[in-house]
Structure formats: structure tokens, C-alpha cells
Amino acid sequence: MKSPLLIWARTAILIARIIFAAVFAMAMVFKFGGMGATAKYIAAAGIPAAYPLAWVAAFFELALVVCFLTGALFREAALAAAAYVLFLGCVFHGPAHWSGNQDQFGFFVDHFTFMAGLLFAAVHGPGDVFVLTRARLIRTHASAAESRPGRPSDDDPRK
After folding, report:
1. Which pTM value belongs to this model?
2. Is there a domain that residue 117 lies in?
């Protein structure tokens, strides 16, 4: 028998999901609000096809926000986000950037602490508050179909 999470633990998990979503939402808003500037920043790092990649990054961050807020595909999203954050930290704030600006080392380290939180979240999951799962979607769809008038239920002998 699985013991229910304590209220403080459930609250902490939900707050963490909201923080993850907020961080990626802010990044997404900045990208959509200034796609040209984002593309220039990507191109300055030596990455080709910067403009299309900026759009891909913005929509990827939108998907992460949806996953973190709903809990749907949460573990997969947390793992993908951790890989994304590692990539961003290495490419945009890695050792090649430290000599010109020591703040870049701090930004680099910050990406690793964020990645650690995402990996922890991937292992422990979204909790059990406000979680949209495939089973819940199927159950909701099935119960909606059963509640339609004139449609027999599973245990109806007229089937």
C-alpha cells in the first residue's frame, strides 16, 4: 500500500513544477518577443541555421511549459529539459566564454544546478496533484462517452 504524500511535500512538488514552467515560459516569451535577437545570439555561438533553431527552441520551451504545468509526460519532459539546459550551459556559457567575462562561469554553474533539479524531478515524478496522465485522459474520455444518452454502458445487457 502506497502512503499518501504529506501536504507539505505535495505543495513543494507543485511549487517546483510551477517554477520549472515559469523559467521556461520566461525564456519562451523572450524568444517569441524577439526572434531576430535570439537568432543573432545563437548565430554568435557559431551554430548554423540560427533563425529556424530559435523557433524550434521557442516551441520546445512551450512544450516544456505545458508538460510541467499539466504533469503530462513529466518525466520525459524533465529529462529533455535537463539535456537542453546542459547543452545551453556548455554552448553559451562554457569554458570558451570564461576568459572574457568571469560572470559566464557563474552562469555555467547555474545551468548545472538547474539540471540537477530537473534530473531529481525526472526520477521522482510530478507528484499526485494536478497531474494529467494518459490513464486519466482515457478514463475521462470513456466516462464522457458512457454518459452520452442512448449509448449502452459496458455492463448493459443490450450490447
Report:
1. 0.79
2. yes
